[in-house]
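Hello Y.,

Per our agreement to keep a running log of every chain we model this quarter, I'm adding this entry. I've kept the format consistent with earlier entries: sequence first, then predicted structure.
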Amino acid sequence: MKIEVIEEVWRELGKCEMCGIRDLVLFADLNEDDFKLIHQPIVDMQLKPLQTLFRTDDSPDFVYTIRSGLVKLVNYSSDGRYRIVRLLGKGDLVGIEVLNGQPYAHCAEALEPLAVCRIPVSEVLRINRDTPRLHEQMLARWQKISSDADCWITELSTGQARQRVIHLLLHLASISDSDDFFLPSREDMGAMLAITTETASRMISALRNEKVLQVLEKNRARADLVQMRTLL
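Predicted structure for the entry above:
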């Protein structure tokens, strides 16, 4: 894991304005005076695929804004089995539950090369107390969590296995910045969709045979999204 302190990056508005996802991040609405309220540094972190951002028993001192890449939120059972409860991508806030004084609810792990900004919880709470401009962004992120949870329940955890796989692929395509998108391992697909690894593999093979899905190198895929939607 590569970690680098971003010197003064949140103190100088000009540097924040150069951020490629400035309009997506938690501090998007803050002005120069607001940034002066920050006393601890924001840290730039680079993770490789499969590296862990935090575990449920880690001290809940930080939240993380994703600048690029995907994070999976994972629940592990005592027998070693796991369930992926949600995927987070660019602009999302990881670990938001700790802002309510709760421990981390899940393990957060990188699915692909990941770049995040690590933000001390104390700084978020201070800014939220001292300026009204953070409130709207906080509400937006809580609303997104609610919407994502509804999507996960209604589209990715119910219905036939084929429908679940198609919904997942459409979701992954919708959050991608390019014509292709990240394709999880069959094991992770099973853990996301509550289906077996074998079923996930069979569904992907079927979509490939139907010329709707093209599997590329390095866990990437491309799909005929219009045609795929007709299969639902």
